[in-house]
Specification:
The protein has helices at residues 14-24, 49-62, 82-95, 111-116, 130-148; strands spanning 2-8, 32-38, 69-79, 99-103, 119-122. It is of the alpha/beta class. The protein has a single domain, classed as SPOUT methyltransferase, trefoil knot domain (Alpha/beta knot).
């Protein structure tokens, strides 16, 4: 099973890249986390934000691998505990179906991405910088996997 983290943004700061890699590399091949970076629209003071988000959404959807179960990461989505994520991860591993997590840019995720998603998830009601979301997702997937394997990381 693959988990695709499809996110707006390229050439992140080194701390973002290192944070993401620290957790993604800990995952075993049967629970591989793969980042797919999608270029953001350029923004100026005259940018039509809705149009930029919509165009980013088109590119996010184009990057979706075939036959994936899609989750849109959105502040209004369902919130799962880490234990609930672990239970869902166990189900995903059993099903063998690939998963895609869509992460928007600084202005959020397009409506077409939310409509395409099988479900919307929220990491928190708090607002996080979109580069940090990559690290949080990678860490939480690793933590969920460690729960399933009885690893002491989650305590």
């Amino acid at each position: 099973m693959h988990i695709y983290l499809i996110a707006i943004g390229q050439r992140m700061d080194e701390w973002v890249t290192q944070g993401y890699l620290e957790f993604s590399k800990r995952l075993p091949p049967e629970c591989r986390l793969q980042l797919i970076e999608v270029p953001p629209n350029k923004r100026t003071k005259n940018t039509d934000i809705q149009r930029a988000v919509s165009e980013e959404g088109v590119r996010l959807l184009a990057a979706l691998p075939a036959n994936t179960l899609v989750y849109a990461m959105d502040a209004a989505g369902q919130q799962w505990s880490t234990e609930q994520l672990a239970a869902r991860l166990e189900q995903w591993l059993g099903d063998g179906r690939d998963i895609a997590l869509l992460v928007g840019g600084p202005d959020g995720l397009s409506e077409q991405c939310k409509a395409r998603a099988d479900a919307c998830l929220s990491l928190s009601r708090l607002t996080f910088p979109h580069p940090l979301v990559r690290i949080i997702i990678a860490e939480q997937i690793y933590r969920a996997w460690s729960i399933l394997k009885g690893h002491p990381y989650h305590r």
